[in-house]
Amino acid sequence: MTVLEITGLCADAGEHRLLHDVDLVLDRGEVLAVLGESGAGKSTLGLALLGESAPGVELSVSGDSRCRDYRRSRPSGSVALLPQHPGAVLDPVRRVGPVLRELAALRHRDRAGRATAIADACEAARFDPTLLRRFPHQLSGGQQQRAALAQTLVTGPDVVVLDEPTTGLDPATSAELVERLDVLRARGTALVLLTHDLDVARALGGRAMRLDHGRVVARGTVAELLGPAAPHEVPTGRLIGDVRLQVRGLAIADRTGRPVLHGVDLDARAGELLGVVGLSGAGKTTLGRCVAGLAPARGTVRVDGALLSARIGRRSRAQRRAVQYVHQDPRATFLAHRNVVDQVARPAVLLRNVPTAAARDEAHELLTRLGVAPEVAARRPGTLSGGQLQRAAVARALLAHPSVLVCDEVTSALDAAHRDHLLAAIDALRHDHDTTVLLICHDLPLVERVADRIVVVDDGRVRA
C-alpha cells in the first residue's frame, strides 16, 4: 500500500534552486534513507514531504503530491516530522504532557482514546511518563529527543520523516533510537531517514537515494549505495601551555531542586583541546553553559586568572570575548530576518573593533574554508541546512578570537568531509591564538583522535 507519493518536486530560494524534480514513492512499513552531504537538500526535502518549507523557500510540484492532500484533509496529518533539533518543536513555555494531550485530541475525542494514544506514543518513544509535567528545558538532550518523538507519534502518522535523528546523541542513545524506529517500521509506519550517519542508515536498511545539490544522483538499496566507511584524517593534539581555564566547585540544580552538577573542578591549558564526553543527560551541556555564563551556577570560573561573573550579562566585553559558546542547536541562535554572513561577522565588530567591511571579508573567508559558499552565506538562516548553520555558528564564534571556545556537539550535524574542515579551522585557531577548546561530543572515537585529554561527565560529576 502506497502511503506517500510525490512527483517532480522543486524548491527555490529566490534564484537558487534547492531541489530539482525529485520523485518519491513510499509504501507502508518501508524505510527510505535520503543520503547526502550537508547542504545537499535533505532538510528541504523533509519539510516538503509535509507540504511545508522554510521562510523564503517556494515549493512547486509538477505531478501528484499526496502528502499535501493529507495535510489538507486531516488536521493531525499522516506525515509527521521529527526535526534535526528536537528542541525546535518543543514549546519552551508549556509542559510536555498538556502538549501531548492537545495533539492526541486531534484524533481522539474521548478522554480514554487520548490517554491510550499518549501512553502508546510514550511507550514507542521510550519517554518516561513521569517526566510529562516537566518543561523542555528540564529535560536532557536525549529526553528531549524522546519527548519530540512521542509528540510526533501521538497523532498516529502513516509516515515519519526523521531529519538527522541521531544528532547530539551518544552511541548508546543512538542505538536505542534505532531499536525504536525498527519497531515502528515493523508496526507499519513508513520512515524517511534524512541523514549523513551511515551507520544508522545501514542499521535500518531499506531503500536509499542520494542527493547532491538538490538533485537525485543515485537510487538503490542501502546496501547497494553504501560501501565500507573510509577513514578520515583529522587534526591531532599539539603542544599546550599554562592553565587557561580554571573551574572550581561548579554546582547547579534544575527547577525541581535536582542537582545537575555536583561541585565540578576542571582545568584546561592554553591551546589544549579538552574532550568532554558522557551519556545523554550526564550534564555535559550544562557544564559548557555554566563556563560560558549561560547557566548561572555556584562556584568559580577563571580565564587566565581573571574571575568571570556567573552571568554572561554581567561580564565585560573582554570577558564575553574570552569565552565563546557554540550551541548544539544553531538555528535557535540566528536571527531569522538577517543574512548569515552579517551575523557571522558581528562578533568581530562588537568584540574586536574590526570595521564592518573588514569583518565581512573575514567572515566570507572563514565560511568559504568551512564549505559555506558566499552565495549561501548571503541568504537568511531559514534557507540553510542544519549542517551549514552549524558551520556558520562555529565561524561566528571563531571570529571573536576567544581564549576559550566551548563547542557543544558541533560535529554531530556534519558529514565526514565537512566535519574535518571544521576541526581543521578550530585547530588553526588553537595554533594562531592558543585558544583552549572544550569539545562536548558523544562521538568517542572522534574525541579520542583529536583531543589532547578527555574527561567524562557522569551524573553531574567529572571523572578524568
TrEMBL record:
SMART domains hit by this protein: AAA
Annotated keywords: ATP-binding, Nucleotide-binding, Transport
GO-annotated molecular function: ATP binding; ATP hydrolysis activity
SUPFAM superfamilies the record matches: P-loop containing nucleoside triphosphate hydrolases
InterPro entries, per database record: AAA+_ATPase (IPR003593), ABC_transp_ATP-bind (IPR050319), ABC_transporter-like_ATP-bd (IPR003439), ABC_transporter-like_CS (IPR017871), P-loop_NTPase (IPR027417)
Domain of life of the organism encoding this protein: Bacteria
GO BP term, example: transmembrane transport
Protein name as annotated: ABC transporter ATP-binding protein
Lineage: Bacteria, Bacillati, Actinomycetota, Actinomycetes, Pseudonocardiales
